[in-house]
Amino acid sequence: MMPAARESLLDAAYTALARRPWSAVRMVDVAAAAGVSRQTLYNEFGSKDGLARALVRREADGFLAGVERALAAHPEPREGLAATAEWIAEAARENALARALLTGCWSERLPALALTAVPSTSAVPAQRRADGPLPSPGDFVALVRDRAVAVVCGPGEDKAEAAEAARCCELVVRLALSCVAAPPGEGGVAGLVRGVLYRQPV
Predict the structure, then answer these.
(1) Tens digit of pLDDT for each residue in 60-102?
(2) What domain range is 187 assigned to?
(3) Do the beta carbons of residue 85 and residue 175 sit within 8 Å?
(4) Separation between Cα atoms, residue 128 and residue 147, nearest integer Å
(5) 84, 179 contact by CB (below 8 A)
(6) What are the C-alpha distances in Å from 192 to residues 83, 91, 195, 199?
(7) Which of 161, 162, 198, 196 is nearest to 176 (CA)?
(8) Is residue 168 situated within a structural domain?
(9) For labelling alongside 44, which of 8, 63, 150, 195 has CA 20 to 30 A away?
(10) How far are the Cα atoms of 29, 69, 120, 163, 199 from residue 150, in angstroms, in the given order?
(11) Is residue 51 part of a domain?
(12) In a domain, 179, yes or no
């Protein structure tokens, strides 16, 4: 199957999940919404669980790419981290799957997935990856932190500076997550993060 068709199926699954609980999402409806046969859907993902794992993996990858874009839009590290914190909080509020990956709180509306790898017989490389382990909340926070560090530090950073940047980036990610559960008042997420970061060496 062409990658575009796989993306269309994942888009259809995401749209279906936004409208109803995963338990009520039917494979035949996802296939119809994407304009392919149900057999094509099964050939690509193997099962409904395979589709769910692929959808979660895509949302995780998309979230990490969004972090990189938010950081890259601001050349000054503190401002980049403040903007990224705001982006993280907003994206986590809007995307239930990203929020679940970050917090570990999987509501009854979402797929019930094991984070451990599952046996995969798929010939589709993207599906074999989706059938691999999914990140725990701690793993996912670390992935977001490490993406931030890679953008903030750049090549040639010494170990002490890289360790300090990692500490600051993790602080920003965890502050942003706290703002998902309890949105801050005046100044918003970015203001809160700026207040912390301008007392930190970055």
Answers:
(1) 999 999 998 998 888 888 888 889 999 999 999 999 999 999 9
(2) 59-123+133-197
(3) yes
(4) 23
(5) no
(6) 11, 17, 5, 12
(7) 196
(8) yes
(9) 63
(10) 41, 12, 32, 12, 21
(11) no
(12) yes
